[in-house]
Design goal:
single chain, 296 residues, alpha/beta, three-stranded mixed β-sheet, 11 strands, 37% helix, disordered N terminus
Amino acid sequence: MFASMAESMASALIEDHKMCTSPPKKFLLILKTALNYRTSGLCAFILTFLQACSASPIGGGYNATTPKNILDQELFNSLKSGAVVIANVNLGPPSRNYLEKRAAMVDSRVRTYLESNGYEVSAQREFSQRWNNAILIYGDPIDPTTGRVNQKAFIQIVQAVRDQLREQTDIRGIVFTDLIEKDAFFEQGLNRVSRFDGVTRKPSVQGAGSGVTADFDWSRAVSAVSLRVSLFNMDLDRIFTGQGGIEVTDAVDTRSGTSFVRRRDVLNNESHIDEGIAIALHPAILMKKWPGAGGP
């Protein structure tokens, strides 16, 4: 009976996102450990609980560019048991080559974030192996030359993979993670930052030159990357779709001092990646100090 009460307490605290976004399983473990002690144990429990809360990415304050992610609460509530799998392909057009090289690493960060918030995540090979087998039957839906997607073939393959996952595994949800390149701009004035999809990023510099010239054109567009996350159930109903900014992929070229150039260290900053993931998955997983209007 007492264990049941403890579990109820854990669930209630997790649902109250103003207190914490730590996963129920993790909090329950902390709670059970603390209950083995008396007064000193209670202090230790409070300290550990606060540390667990602070482990989640925290937003940097209100940002007018924060996307309005879409969650179907009824369908989401029905996804109570079973695992999810992260697809190794985009739901939309393929990512740019320089982003695709880092896609597996980003997927691993998404998996870590999901698991740390109580989700069971199956190995990606459960999806990729079935996807590759289905390509042998229906053909590759992506034209390697143009990058265009044959929607009919894509849907057929997704349905075939879904059918096999439903019959052969306990997977109950498919997560698509698309790395999207987009234009961003730096603000004018002393505080030169770029705001897009909920994040704020400062300009980077690259090269061995002396710096930026006084007449540098800061008004031109730069390339940035955001993460779009989509969750489907096994009926292929869209449960959730969200997007979060990660980073600007261009840097000021200090050799010329007059232009931007592609950064060599694209998608190497784990803090930026984790912030983008947290924004992209809110409110499916509540983000502490979400940067959108009216957020927690």
